[in-house]
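example protein:
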Amino acid sequence: MINRWTKLAGLMVITLVVLWLSCPFEGSDKEPEDGHFLSPSASPAPTELVTPTPPTPDIPEETPGEPGPFLYEKLVEETAQGPIVMHFLEIDLKSENVGVKPVTSHRTLFGYEYLSVMAKNTNAIAAVNGGFSHPNGLPGGMLYSNKTLKTPATGNFPVLFLFEDRAVIADASQKIWLQSKEVATDPVFFNRYSTFGGIYVFTPIYGSSNRIEKPHLCAVVQRGRVSELVLAHEPVSIPSDGFLVSAVGVDAEKRLRDFITTGQEVEIKSHLETSPSFDGEYVSAYECGSWLIRDGVNVCPKSDAWVGNLLTRAPRTAVGIKSDGTLLFVVVDGRNKDISVGVTGPELAELLLKKDVLQAAMLDGGASSEMIIGEKIVNHPSAGRERLISSCFIVFRNGE
């Protein structure tokens, strides 16, 4: 009996070693499998904040010689808990030579890729992991790019709005509805996975189908008109030249039938409210995590819905805007006492205040925290290798 259990344990160890070695350290061009989880909070109990010693600037040897139209800086601080290693990426959006935008994995809202693969596929000169996602890869909030709304603002977290020459972080909420002549629906779900009853609208960016595998009523809209109404018990295709409206539940089906008929003209309408408000047309938008700094004040909460406890030390990624308008990303290494012990949320806010940041918000952290300059990963991902992520920010040269 003991011999059999010994053999079984040996096989398990061999299997784990093979799986570890089969995971590439430099990323992969293969299609990733679904299975990302929300960033875990670190297990140690909260520690008291300490005043670190003055930071030591350092540009690591592996950093490319010519960083491009941005500023990259590595800082090391010694604290009572151990070293803290920070990687800062600053971009002057007023420069005509450089741009920043959010990028998702693959061509739909679902799925995962390595940051190195997304950077390579977009000819990025630098890249940083993005924010939070649901376990299936669907973005956690507002995503707007290429003059197209892909997922709306939830109203729960701040949104980074990127303009041609500036950036704004603001609270944002968004209402989506269907309009037909003088008649409109109540607010609908937009490009959202259908976990409960209601009226859902799906555009082609969502994927090839609505992914609904239960009884529902669909209105197929092509070139602005309803081409057919379909009762279905399985996923229905989303038209490439329009959108799909799906009603889940008896009440939602009745409301859709009362609103829509075959041949009717229908369009998607939306209304965005922000605080503070701003003027001008933004080119992209991305919903972040909790506020870290607002109007120059540390407002980091003790916890939030994505991360959980923010008073534990962990690898973290954040985005901020300096007093001169410069856009700044920071990646802090963690979970390694010999390299970097990580930071709490409030500590991260204090570090950004020292960099003259006036507005800042969390992005995803933990094993997802990663920064690439050129073709090099300049930080130390806490898992020892890249982690599959759903989205990122890339820095690119204008005209490329």
